[in-house]
Amino acid sequence: MLLFGLLAVGSAYAAFAPDNAVADNSAQSQQIEEGKKLFAVGCASCHGLNAEGGNNGEGKMAGPSLIGVGAAAVDFQVGTGRMPAMQPNAQIPQKPPVYTPAEIEALAAYVASLAPGPAVPAQESYDVSKATDEQVTRGGELFRTNCTACHNFAGKGGALPNGRYAPALMGVSEQHIYEAMLTGPQQMPVFSDQVLQPEDKRDIIAYLKTLETQKDPGGFGLGRLGPVSEGLWGWLVGIGLLVCVAVWIGAKGVRAKGVDAE
Fold first, then answer.
1. Domain Cytochrome c spans what residues (predicted)?
2. Domains contained in the chain, CATH given
């Protein structure tokens, strides 16, 4: 009876479910295989053939292990052009991506197949097209609490020790901002869903996108860099004008004394 039951269940599954299941598994396997080939050509020299991490021949790490970083980390690093890097530096700058979107998906699928890790977020996770004023305000509060120490209150970026810096967040896609919070690239801390919930991340993104279109009500924004640019403007223009006035007064006084002497 048990054998009969197993045969009946197996036959029913084979009759009704195999086409979609086999097709999905085949497509996923093919994508992972393609990603593995791309990884071997473009990434293995630094990260190791099996993504276990590599060294530069002097015992120093050339590229960290990618086992467990997840598809989201790959999509961010490769999608923003930071990887593949020209050479290991204190900071890997953003540049135009080398791979196509399909190739990035394949690389992400391959790395994700090695070990569990953060997945590429769904579009609804970072879609802020219908964000309310309340959500934008809340996102600003969260951003000023967690992010301004490095990225500046207006998301313009800032300097960090040892030649590193927090990049500007203006013009960065919603998906990549979400993935950066989720994975913590380079020296950025990881804001997992336990630290910042998905709706918190979405509100922060809504705030940043509002800043991109926000005008400066006071006139010149001066790069929105805060007291540095404002102080420089004050010294160069304000103090400069005072010096010019002082020189003018002094010259006028000398001419007046000359006329009195004559």
1. 30-115, 134-212
2. 22-120 (1.10.760.10), 121-214 (1.10.760.10)
